[in-house]
Amino acid sequence: MAADLAKHFRAELHLVNVIPYFPTTTLPDLIPETEYIQEARTYAAQQLAKCHAALTARGVKARSSVEVGNDVAGSIMEVIEREQVDMVVISTHGILGWHPLVFGSIAEKMLSWCNVHSCYFAQLSHRVSERNRPELLLC
After folding, report:
1. What whole-number distance in Å separates Cα of residue 82 and Cα of residue 79?
2. Are 45 and 93 in contact (CB under 8 A)?
3. How far apart are CA 139 and CA 44, in angstroms?
4. Which residues fall within 8 angstroms of residue 68, CB to CB, at 6 or more apart?
5. pLDDT, tens digit, for every residue of 40-62?
6. Domain count, the chain
């Protein structure tokens, strides 16, 4: 959906991947955290490069960045300010359970903190058919 909006408005997309500084897994003592972060950064950059190639093939201008920080919403806000973003398009991960209740949803934080226009997409359940999927919510 973000690519369609960018193409329609002849805008450029900025893709962001935020890597938690402290990994969510317990690492063995043999693997230093710096090595883990570097490997995660390399993997994220590879995935973003694939997205960039697909967008370029569709005629959409794009760039990307890999950020490292424990506050994902805060890291995204820093990118918004640094890159002077005009609009944010964000999707939920569809995480259920206690985590969003305790820590809050990143997408919800972005909607409340953002000073720019925002589009919010709820992740589709695999039980929802393409025919009756939810429409785009603009906030």
Report:
1. 5
2. no
3. 29
4. 18, 19, 20, 21, 37, 41, 75
5. 999 999 999 999 999 999 999 99
6. 1
Q: How far is CA 127 from CA 24, 94, 133, 135, in A?
A: 29, 13, 10, 16
pTM of the model: 0.71
117: in domain: no
Question: 25 lies in which domain range?
Answer: 10-70
**Tens-place pLDDT, residues 55-111:** 999 999 999 999 999 888 899 899 988 998 888 888 766 555 555 555 567 777 877
DSSP 124: P
Q: Are strands 137-138 and 87-91 parallel, antiparallel or unpaired?
A: unpaired
Asked if residue 17 belongs to a domain, the reply is: yes
Provide the 10 A C-beta neighbour count for residue 41.
15
**Sign of the Cα pseudo-torsion (86, 87, 93, 99, in order):** positive
Residue type at 32?
P
